[in-house]
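Help needed: design a sequence for this.
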């Protein structure tokens, strides 16, 4: 077994175990931490698959942005309510049934596909897709890129204002 294969299975096991543990955890904060661990393991798998841009995007957008905001919201609401947020699992049987159904459909569709056997090794070329994506972001898609940046800035300022108003009201 090569090092790359071992690392793939290692990160795959981390992602799968953290996703399974996410189902059974009752504390929302611990659930967010498990989701961070799962997303970081997926980013490592992307790196092993030579998809560096997707891995960096996964870390920056999901782990660095969205989940930090979720954890900030959990910690902010915990301060307001004064108790930890606990999740009750009321639909265990129906959720398990739906998950098994989706797994059966996924496995069936994978067995229906015919994958070509391609033993050609990866050829490194001078073409760099990250350069192309960067050029497209700064030329053709500049307006949506800037709008997304402004929206994230507005959300950050709004959360800071909310946090400061709650803190000042308690004093």
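Sure. Designed sequence:
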């Amino acid at each position: 077994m090569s090092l790359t294969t071992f690392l793939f299975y290692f990160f795959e096991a981390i992602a799968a175990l953290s996703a399974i543990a996410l189902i059974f955890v009752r504390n929302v904060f611990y659930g967010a931490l498990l989701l961070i661990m799962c997303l970081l393991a997926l980013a490592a798998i992307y790196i092993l698959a030579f998809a560096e841009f997707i891995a960096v995007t996964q870390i920056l957008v999901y782990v660095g942005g969205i989940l930090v905001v979720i954890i900030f919201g959990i910690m902010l609401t915990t301060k307001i309510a004064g108790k930890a947020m606990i999740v009750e699992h009321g639909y265990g049987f129906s959720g398990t049934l739906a998950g098994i159904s989706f797994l059966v459909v996924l496995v069936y569709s994978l067995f229906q596909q015919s994958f070509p056997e391609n033993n050609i090794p990866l050829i490194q070329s001078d073409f760099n897709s990250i350069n192309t994506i960067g050029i497209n972001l700064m030329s053709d898609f500049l307006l949506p890129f800037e709008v997304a940046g402004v929206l994230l800035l507005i959300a950050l300022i709004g959360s800071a204002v909310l946090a400061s108003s709650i803190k000042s009201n308690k004093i």
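The mean pLDDT is 81.
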